[in-house]
Amino acid sequence: SFLSMEKEPVTVLVTGAAGQIGYAIVPMIARGAMLGPDQPVILHMLDIEPAAESLNGVKMELIDAAFPLLRGVVATTDVQEACKGVNIAVMVGGFPRKEGMERKDVMSKNVSIYKAQASALEKNAAADVKVLVVANPANTNALILKEFAPSIPEKNITCLTRLDHNRALGQISEKLNVHVGDVKNVIIWGNHSSTQYPDVNHATVTTSGGEKPVRELVANDQWLNTEFITTVQQRGAAIIKARKLSSALSAASSACDHIRDWVLGTPKGSWVSMGVYSDGSYGIQWSIVQGLKIDEFSRGKLDATAQELIEEKSLAHSCLN
Ligand code: NAD
Ligand code: LMR
């Protein structure tokens, strides 16, 4: 029967669910934007005590929206309960930066959250839980989570650079006046910060005459090597300046893209960006694209963002001591 063919629900945790990104992402998940239109979901939403009433309001709205794929909602301030049986963990909980701050300026507030929640996940989540850290500084929070959840396979702990990837696609699409869906294979190297390196050296656009390199179509290395890079690097700050709040709908949508492509895969010949624990080898669920040619310009940018990550790591450890 049709009934017996239905998939088992997948349990998705969203931390910081009463916040801005939380409010944007839970309806996307409940509509199938993260795991597909035939995948029932159970949502676990975690926030802290001062946000408990507001979190309960989000739960009421999820019920009121009558999402057919949504098979259960838990709204809680108990981190152990929130992590129970979780298959996918989207870690948004924490504090956003304000205008004029760098993302690492929220480090001392946020890394301690990731240390504590690592243990709760390790203890309560499914053994093969897939973790996406969104809260900033995202790469370093993910590293701390990995260190304090040693039994979760390190390949299952990732952070969000897909928003930067999507921003890069958006800038190319605007510049060339082509559909964003026809642009692919940009790369975000390094930190989700102003040292990140959005690389278009391998990016292409599908045109009526076949696949063309972005560098050939833009035919303006000056723009690609300066304004394009700084626009993507500084886009988060530009959104904060304009909205007086950090990005939320684009962050939520990109987090859905990240999980969807991780679980369901990317089309042959294309890749996407995610922050992963780097060991240089191929993995089972995702793999690092190997063998790309890195020119001298790219080399300098890669080294700068890697250096920043090393500094953040030691800063994070000093915050926890
Ligand atoms: P927000 O302040 O609107 O929401 C954050 C929520 O987290 C709040 O409801 C807060 O109560 C909750 N929270 C705080 N401590 C918590 C804890 N210990 N456990 C559970 N919940 C907790 O912020 P937002 O705009 O939704 O942004 C959330 C985070 O995501 C920020 O750190 C922001 O900088 C980051 N962010 C990252 C990206 C990215 O691309 N990686 C993009 C956008 C935002
Ligand atoms: C973003 O890139 O929009 C987020 O990391 C929020 C921020 O602080 O810039």
Automatic annotation (TrEMBL):
Cited SUPFAM superfamilies: LDH C-terminal domain-like, NAD(P)-binding Rossmann-fold domains
Enzyme Commission number(s): 1.1.1.37
UniProt keyword terms in alphabetical order: Membrane, NAD, Oxidoreductase, Transmembrane, Transmembrane helix, Tricarboxylic acid cycle
Gene3D superfamilies: Lactate dehydrogenase/glycoside hydrolase, family 4, C-terminal, NAD(P)-binding Rossmann-like Domain
Span of domain Lactate/malate dehydrogenase C-terminal: 161-289
Domain of life of the organism encoding this protein: Eukaryota
Enzyme's top EC category: oxidoreductase
PROSITE patterns per record: MDH
Domain Lactate/malate dehydrogenase N-terminal: 11-157
Catalytic activity: (S)-malate + NAD(+) = oxaloacetate + NADH + H(+)
Record carries keyword Ribosomal protein: no
Protein family membership: Belongs to the LDH/MDH superfamily. MDH type 2 family.
PANTHER family: MALATE DEHYDROGENASE
NCBIfam families: MalateDH-SF1, MDH_euk_cyt, PRK05442.1
Name recorded for this polypeptide: Malate dehydrogenase
